[in-house]
């Protein structure tokens, strides 16, 4: 492929992803269609179908593209400070444009294997980063030596997903600090 | 309405709900359509639309119908035993036919207000029952006096929904006993 054609392809790819994001944020995942994306991006439907198998695939590519630019798990040396910062970032992301896209992908993941694989792959990166940070805190004596780290991630992030996906109550602004405080006796080393 | 017509209506309603359940379990929520339900139940599409606004509404009615028959939160007098029993019941439900339906309704709830309201209403009943049981355990001195009970429900059930909806890892058979054991220092009264 010539450099010009390659650049045009890359621009079209970005236009498609951008269009899918905007439609999802403005109208919700259920309203995202290949027709609407093609119209907004100024790209033929056939081109889109040549590159992606479904709308979920387009949004997944977009999420993975944006994630590359984002920083890793914070590390100030104090695990509770870092968990507070990181969960606040996650809550803010979920309330913003990214939240609309991520919510749609998780919904799609309940019935589409392709979306389920993508969601799993993206989360695996985040979970591994969190587990690595928790492992460092265990070494530093800030967390229980016998803490199952994968389980600890589920204890910490489970309540976020529970309230966010199930909508069981309005989430107070201090929700995650309260969760972390409640979990502290389960996370901290036992005092002798 | 005559007693006969009323009985016929009730039979048709049940046939529609039953058909929606079977299709959802066999083929997944995405494949449930009013056409397929009508064909399977032997009921006209127009009749279905007169009674329900969407497929989610049919499944929600079915879930609420089945729930009436189910028992409340277990109460043996030992809260950790009861939480172990109840979470094992939930995990078993999620792995069975009910899980396919509940998973579809939660997916629909991410973009449909009607489904979101239904999911919230059903969960509210379960959460209130759990909170009442936890309150009794606080009174009995089995749980921390300062435990926020709504938050405690999210700490306990958050990890179930996290693993079940996000599919981040294969769930081991002893998953919830392990979660409850890990949470015990956060739930139990502090030893002096």
Write the layout of secondary structure elements.
The structure is a homodimer of 192-residue chains.
Chain A: H1 3-27, H2 34-41, H3 45-51, H4 55-69, H5 79-95, H6 97-109, H7 113-139, H8 149-166, H9 175-187
Question: How would you describe this structure in keywords?
Answer:
homodimer, 192 residues, mainly alpha, Arc Repressor Mutant, subunit A, Tetracycline Repressor, domain 2, 2 domains
Verbal overview:
Two copies of one chain form a homodimer. Chain A is built from nine helices and no strands. Chain A is mainly α. Chain A has two domains: 3-64, Orthogonal Bundle (Arc Repressor Mutant, subunit A), CATH 1.10.10.60; 70-187, Orthogonal Bundle (Tetracycline Repressor, domain 2). The longest helix of chain A is centred in the middle third of the chain and has 27 residues, at 113-139. The model of chain A has no long low-confidence stretch (mean pLDDT 93). In chain A, helix 1 (3-27) crosses helix 4, helix 4 packs parallel to helix 7 (113-139) and helix 6 packs across helix 7 (113-139). The A-B interface holds A 28-30, 103-104, 106-112, 116, 119-120, 123-124, 127, 147-148, 150-152, 154-155, 157-163, 165-169, 178-179, 182-186, 190 and B 28-30, 103-104, 106-112, 116, 119-120, 123-124, 127, 147-148, 150-152, 154-155, 157-163, 165-169, 178-179, 182-186, 190.
């Amino acid at each position: 492929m010539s450099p010009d054609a390659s650049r045009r392809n890359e621009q079209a790819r970005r236009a498609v992803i951008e269009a899918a994001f905007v439609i999802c944020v403005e109208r919700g995942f259920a309203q995202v269609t290949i027709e609407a994306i093609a119209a907004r991006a100024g790209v033929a439907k056939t081109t889109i179908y040549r590159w992606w198998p479904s709308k979920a695939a387009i949004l997944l590519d977009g999420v993975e593209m944006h994630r590359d630019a984002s920083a890793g798990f914070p590390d100030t040396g104090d695990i509770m400070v870092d968990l507070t910062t990181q969960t606040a970032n996650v809550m803010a992301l979920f309330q913003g444009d990214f939240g609309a896209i991520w919510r749609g992908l998780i919904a799609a993941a309940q019935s589409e294997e392709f979306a389920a694989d993508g969601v799993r792959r993206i989360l695996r990166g985040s979970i591994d980063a969190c587990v690595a940070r928790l492992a460092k805190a265990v070494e530093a004596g800030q967390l229980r030596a016998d803490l199952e780290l994968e389980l600890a991630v589920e204890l910490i992030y489970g309540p976020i997903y529970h309230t966010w996906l199930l909508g069981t109550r309005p989430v107070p602004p201090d929700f995650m600090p309260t969760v972390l405080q409640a979990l502290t006796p389960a996370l901290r080393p036992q005092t002798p």
